[in-house]
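User: I've been trying to design a sequence by hand for this structure and keep getting stuck. Would you show me what you'd pick, starting by listing the structure so we're on the same page?

Assistant: Good idea, let's start from the same input. This is the structure you sent:
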């Protein structure tokens, strides 16, 4: 019996590269999709937001002199590419997915319309929210918090490159230790960078808990959905 009926899954874009230097690694995306399929088979309704860090981040464009807003739109388009790849891999694995974009590109994907998204979820389709929030200066973590709150997800699951929230970035500080639980207020006051502050604040205000766990650990998503203690729970 799953612990959650409807989830918002935030997938790391950067992790899609697998061992490649750039782009979408085939074996990696298939594995991610199979893990999602395992969860849908439990009867859980799944909404997904995927990042774009494997292709483009606005902050990288900004750092080499590009207009930041233009660079951010490029980043949002990168998430559309990842979303299309994810939906197509789902199709190949026998699942039904719908991509909805926050930016109008109707020849490519349908626009985000909340009642339609809710209908798809109720029908058991996986809904992939592409193009972030549709606004520059935000991230896909914030988009995940926003869409998660909009569709009434019970929890936001952040599947990322680390296995939880640490006292400091574990990739930079080997002495950092992992929390099994932490409150939003503490995560925000300690300026923990595993999610951006806007996403933390939105989830806190909307009382949407977050669980951060490793995207690389086989079966972790299913264990999380079944209510097992995996990664870190960020709570109100
Ligand atoms: N206190 C912390 N605890 C855990 N991770 C942290 C912390 N501070 C910084 N990080 C870093 O945050 C990263 C996760 O956030 P990031 O936004 O980079 O990835 P993502 O959202 O999974 O990827 P993408 O943006 O491509 O979708 C981790 O890889 C980790 O190195
Ligand atoms: O609401 C949003 C979401 C994303 N962006 C831009 O896209 C890239 C990729 O997203 P990540 O969350 O970093 O994976 C991001 O760096 C922004 O440039 C955005 O502008 N608005």
């Amino acid at each position: 019996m799953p612990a959650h009926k409807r989830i918002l899954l935030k997938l790391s874009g950067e992790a899609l590269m697998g061992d490649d230097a750039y782009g979408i690694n085939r074996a990696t995306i298939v594995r991610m999709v199979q893990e999602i399929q395992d969860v849908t088979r439990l009867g859980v309704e799944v909404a997904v937001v995927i990042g774009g860090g494997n292709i483009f981040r606005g902050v990288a464009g900004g750092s080499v002199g590009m207009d930041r807003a233009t660079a951010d739109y490029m980043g949002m388009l990168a998430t559309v590419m990842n979303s299309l790849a994810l939906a197509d891999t789902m199709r190949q694995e026998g699942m039904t997915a719908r991509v909805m974009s926050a930016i109008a590109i109707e020849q490519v994907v349908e626009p985000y319309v909340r009642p339609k998204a809710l209908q798809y979820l109720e029908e058991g389709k996986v809904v992939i929210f592409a193009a972030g929030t549709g606004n520059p200066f935000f991230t896909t973590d914030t988009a995940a918090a926003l869409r998660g709150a909009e569709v009434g997800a019970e929890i936001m699951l952040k599947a990322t490159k680390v296995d939880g929230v640490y006292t400091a970035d574990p990739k930079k500080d080997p002495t950092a230790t992992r929390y099994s639980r932490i409150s939003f207020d503490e995560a925000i006051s300690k300026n923990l960078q595993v999610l951006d502050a806007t996403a933390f604040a939105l989830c806190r205000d909307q009382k949407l808990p977050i669980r951060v766990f490793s995207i690389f650990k086989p079966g972790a998503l299913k264990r999380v959905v079944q209510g097992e203690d995996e990664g870190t729970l960020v709570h109100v």
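That's my pick for every position. To get oriented when you compare it with your attempt: Residues 12-14, 51, 53, 140-141, 160-162, 165-166, 168-171, 192-194 surround adenosine-5'-triphosphate (ligand 1) (CB under 6 Å). Residues 3 and 46 are 13 Å apart (CA to CA).
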